[in-house]
Amino acid sequence: MKKFMDWMTNVFAPKMNKIARNPWVAAVQESILTAMPVILIGSFATVFNILRDFIPQIPDISMISNFSFGLLALFLAYLIPATIMEKKKHRKTAKQAGMAGLAFFLMIVYPSFDDAGNINILFSNLGTGGMIASLIAGLFVGAVMNQFAKHSFFGEDSSLPDFITVWFDTLIPITLILIIGWLFTFVWEISIFNIIYEIFKPFISIGQSFWGFVLLNFIGYTFLYTFGISTWVIYPITSAICLQGIGDNMALVAAGNAPININTGEVANLFALGGGGCTLALAIMILFLAKSKKLKVIGKSTIVPSLCNINEPLVFGAPIAFNPLLMVPMWIVGFIIPVVTYLALSSGLVPIPAEPFNFWYIPSPIVGYMVTKSFAGVLLVLVNFAISWVIYYPFFKVYDKQVCDEEKAEEEKKARLAAKKATRKEAVEEE
């Protein structure tokens, strides 16, 4: 165990954190975070739809969701190349890169034109249905623009205004990008969109499978987390799977079918109680059951964030990270709880979410009802909480005793030092 911990701490964790800081990965992460308001607007629409079940007079605002969350891929097509250019210190051409990304994406969704000249684009391709394509298109455009940004037609001492130099320096890369899109779509009649989708379809399918769901959640939001590795390192992968999953569920329900995708951010709300690793039970234990002075202080300072499903203060304060006594139960919980959740949803005991809901900071029992529109979702949250409590409890007791013993030893050490100091003082006074 010690060798494994040393290897994870000194070799694996630094490499993974380095990946998370990579400008290309960071650009995708930041772009999705930038688009978070439109995802939240989709969540607002979900809340209103739930209220409409009880108050029919409330207007239907689903169109607001369609033109916010439903345009997510379109927004990312702009944001990703723009953010890449900023990360690469080419801020002058960031907006131009974003516009090129937008144009290229609209080309590769394979639009058609009728006799009147009207453009026809499948609306779902502009939302989560086109998310994978927008990620690839954004990275491609960012790569092209970044390469050309390294060279300029004008020297640093040029007297021309900056906007003029930017115009000329971006003409060639933008033209090249548009020519590539034009050739594939309108000359060769090859759908890059479909090619990308077919390439990534197996990965999405794996992500929506039982083992894909369990392992992605275990590795990304529990195992790596216990070594201080940010969960953002796999966010580009998980978000692509989860966002497309909820988007497909929405489309299925709209077509009169039942939702089938379980690996969504909405489902994560049913088992990430207190945050990744289902740590809410541990936070409550530390607050109310800990005998250690240190843990009592930690319990008071971490309970509110934990209730809002924010557990960084607990993970790094208790600590859980790099602490085998609490890492092991978090691994067990991080594996078992997703298994229980998947089985509950796949068996039909709990409804599969079919609308976006990203208010993850709301206490879990409330979210359990909001995402499933069923009290079965609340019951599943309570069951997951009970399971996590049973798993964490014996490890917590051992750790609490260990910390108490350390505190007692420290107090005894201080008492001995104080006694020695007092003895020396008396000896000096007698002399």
UniProtKB/TrEMBL annotation:
UniProt cross-references to InterPro entries, sorted A to Z: PTS_EIIC (IPR003352), PTS_EIIC_3 (IPR004501), PTS_IIC_cello (IPR004796), PTS_Sugar-EIIC/EIIB (IPR051088)
Keywords: Cell membrane, Membrane, Sugar transport, Transmembrane, Transmembrane helix, Transport
Main location: membrane
UniProt-listed PROSITE patterns: PTS_EIIC_TYPE_3
Topology versus the membrane: Multi-pass membrane protein
UniProt superkingdom: Bacteria
Physiological role: The phosphoenolpyruvate-dependent sugar phosphotransferase system (PTS), a major carbohydrate active -transport system, catalyzes the phosphorylation of incoming sugar substrates concomitant with their translocation across the cell membrane.
Protein name in UniProt: Permease IIC component
Classification lineage: Bacteria, Bacillati, Bacillota, Erysipelotrichia, Erysipelotrichales
